[in-house]
Amino acid sequence: SAIHRADYTAPAFWIDTVELCFDLDPAKTRVLNKMRLRRNADVPAQPLRLDGEELNLARVLVNGQGASFKMDGNQLVLENLPAAEDGAFDLEIFTTCCPAKNTKLMGLYVSNDSFFTQCEAEGFRRITYFLDRPDVMASYTVTLRADKAKYPVLLSNGNLVEQGTLDDGRHFAKWVDPFKKPSYLFALVAGQLVGREQRITARNGREHLLQVFVRPGDLDKTEHAMNSLMASVAWDEARFGLPLDLERFMIVATSDFNMGAMENKGLNIFNTKYVLANQATATDTDYSNIESVVGHEYFHNWTGNRVTCRDWFQLSLKEGLTVFRDQEFSQDLCREPSARAVKRIEDVRVLRTAQFPEDAGPMAHPVRPDSYIEINNFYTVTIYEKGAEVVRMMQTLVGREGFAKGMTLYFERFDGQAVTCDDFAQAIADANPDSDLARLLPQFKRWYSQAGTPRVHASGSFDAAARTYTLTLGQSCAPTPGQAVKEPFVIPVSLGLVGADGRELALRTMDGNTVPSPYTFVMTQASETLTFVDIDAEPVPSILRGFSAPVVLEFDYSDEQLLTLLANDIDPFNRWEAGQRLAVRSALKAIAAVADPAPLQPLNTAYIDAMRSVLRHPTLDAAFKELVLTLPSETYIAEQLDVVDPQRIHAVREAMRGQLAVALTDDWAWAFDAHADNGAYQPDPLSSGRRALAGMALTHLCLAARTTGDVVWPGKAYQRFKDAGNMTDRFNALAALVASDHALAAQALPRFHAMFKDEALVLDKWFALQAGAPDRAGNILPAVRQLMKHPDFNLRNPNRARSVIFSYCSANPGAFHRPDAAGYVFWSDRVIELDGINPQVAARLARALDRWKKLTEPYRSAAREALVRVAAKADLSNDVREVVTRALAD
Ligand code: ARG
Ligand code: ZN
């Protein structure tokens, strides 16, 4: 049954202090929970209802006395509580649980013989009975007891105040968290771990100990995470004046983790994927993800932990804001402005390929949802990435300094509290009373309440006689489930005008004022116009610069206009965007063509020449070139169509890639030679951009070899695969052979496996590469089935399951959407199988068919049948049930 935001009521009790004592044992862990509770006088008197899940209850004492209680579903209900003067009482609960059998990886679980916890959102109730909701904030004291030889390291939130030995080879550690926190931020870790340590002195002279804990063999992969953590601490102080508030800050890595990482107070727990890196095992992408995720979790210490969410509908309060902060952090770490732009393009690409489809599909929900069945299903790209765009628009509307002022006011008002998205927006507006945000706040907040991606319809008209250029901007937003009508949004549209000669024009409005370029026009109406004067010839409008709002921009550009922007726009985002528009245009044309099979040469000469100019450009960054030369993904192209034939989209995009490969062979060869040797490995944006471009060149040279019969480049790729000094170059070379289906791939793959058989994260790449390979003969699904029988495959490990199953079902549309429906049958089997192990992971996989209604036949009926098959399963988890029910609803 669904939970509604409108039903929120304050808790009937507060928990002031919690003393937890754990006797850690994989088969039976004993948890003694002593709480001091107090009635909330603002709420009518009522029984105490504590949440608990998969717990064995042994004892309940109220004020030291045995107390009567009843069970109501998963809740422990206590009536007749003592009515002390202040309404306070002690409650002691003793339970046991079985971490070894906890395959859901929520609550307390065992991974590689160590104990870990994951409590967000509702995992704490799997550890003990509690008011497991974020607006109940308590002070925690935690004692951990365990076998000393097996679990030498015992960690929890806050400060270590005591440790010592016990009988029978056991020992203990006692931790006190100086900050009140909601239960979802609780954490403990126990196991054989080693730590990299770093002492730092903050600006204010305070000393801190930073630690990164990993399994003993992984210490040589912790330097980058530690550097990222130090950079995060420094950045939050410099940019927002937010210092580290703890003596000790710990990161611990585990290879079994449902998501990326978790910001538990003072004890962040990470998926190994976002901690471990050295040049031999991690790619440039891994390095940059680690930097973002370490930053993200660290920044939560203020945005999430010091100020937390009142309820889970406010999730974007912390997630959208913290994603915005980690994006800004990564940008600020770039020395070159061009690298900042590259990061922005990458972020927008994620938003448009993942969030836009979500916003247009059955799981569409507002940034602040109104209801949910399973909160874990709402850790989405909408809450995270679109939420970050909403915060970014606020910064645009109040300016960078104004935004920093708003953050200061937010913490002045709400430090130590559990609050709402409204509270945040109000603080930013109140700190900037003269801003557009303050003026438009109620309307701006529609970004929180209305789901769906707005479309901005723009058109321009040039009046030669009056020497004016008028832009008409309209907006609309299609209905989403449960929201038929949308009111206009506040849309900051950053824009400029580019002359036909490519030069940026000065912008003068009707009243003769010159406005700074780029100019941010704040749309509020369904339709409005703006006119610029003193324009001599028809300009090319560059609209939505820097992607100033999360919308779809429609403008009927001619090819020439797009080529002008691609060659000249001072805004790197729109320069890239112009290339993407040209490519999408060619793709859509070829997809719509009557010819069957689709035309083999979808790209025109002008586009190919433009790509050559970009590739050979004397001053553009390699990273930027790589982005421009990357064709829009199949998913992105599919979103531009009402009816989707995945095989045709795949064929067209492959044809485009092949065409670029052959037409630019000499240029790719030049690009490879000019960028292949980077000297000593450094993961900085400039050198990783060079590696990315070299890798792209190699892939295209191997693709071209399929047509030309060339043997030299595949040979070079194999050589590079063997000799590379870092994982980025090695993996790109391997990927080039796999992408071109070259016979040498069959030699390289087993060799790669043998080289890295003990490196779990590298094996994940090895599995993912094969499950994501282009399907030229319908042999990927059988290969995936084979991979699942590999001795290194383990369905219980989320990273490994994702590397095979998700790489196939979610990231390889050409292989997954089979006319014989076998891909969908495979999908439904895996969703059902995974649901019995780990519902969260199963529900993510279930989303692979979100967009089934757009599919053409026979795919559509087959996909529906697969969904019905999953939905018909009797004891589905809430997680999967919610996803498939919404997918099948009309
Ligand atoms: N708060 C974490 C982060 O974004 C994500 C935890 C989500 N976990 C979950 N089981 N839904 O950093
Ligand atoms: Zn987060």
Describe this entry's structure for a reader.
This protein is an alpha+beta fold and 890 residues long. The protein is built from 27 helices and 34 strands. Strands 2, 3, 5, 6, 9, 12, 14, 15 and 16 form a nine-stranded mixed β-sheet that branches. Strands 18-19-20-22-21 form a five-stranded mixed β-sheet, covered by helices on one side. Strands 32-27-26-34 form a four-stranded mixed β-sheet, with no helix packed on it. A hairpin with a 2-residue loop joins strand 10 (107-111) and strand 11 (114-118). Helix 9 (559-568) runs antiparallel to helix 10 (572-592) and helix 12 crosses helix 16. The radius of gyration is 28 Å and the shape is globular. Residues 118, 120-121, 258-259, 261-263, 296-297, 319, 376, 379, 840 line the site of arginine.
